[in-house]
Amino acid sequence: FQYLKRFERGRDLDRFRYKALSVEGSPAECVQLFLLHCGVVDPSWAELRNFTWFLNVQLRDCEASVFCNPDFVGDTLNGF
């Protein structure tokens, strides 16, 4: 949700890192963003769960990868 919220506002995500235990927005806003970005017109709860699980895994791996670290790659992957 933290990434999607910043993405919706057009913020730079290259240097953002997930903030554990940080509460942002309301549950309704969270579900609304998931519905907007999951790619399914009328998703079931299972489809929303799978979307959030997949997105979480991808973002966690991205944060852990040295190749996605802006301090390591500089501006060679700006906006990637």
UniProtKB/TrEMBL annotation:
GO terms for molecular function: ATP hydrolysis activity; ligase activity; ubiquitin-protein transferase activity. InterPro entries: RNF213. Keywords: Ligase. Coiled coil: none annotated. GO terms for cellular component: cytosol; membrane; nucleolus. GO terms for biological process: negative regulation of non-canonical Wnt signaling pathway; sprouting angiogenesis; ubiquitin-dependent protein catabolic process. PANTHER family: E3 UBIQUITIN-PROTEIN LIGASE RNF213, RZ-TYPE DOMAIN-CONTAINING PROTEIN. This is RN213 ligase. It comes from Loxia curvirostra. The lineage of its organism: Eukaryota, Metazoa, Chordata, Craniata, Vertebrata. The gene is Rnf213_5.
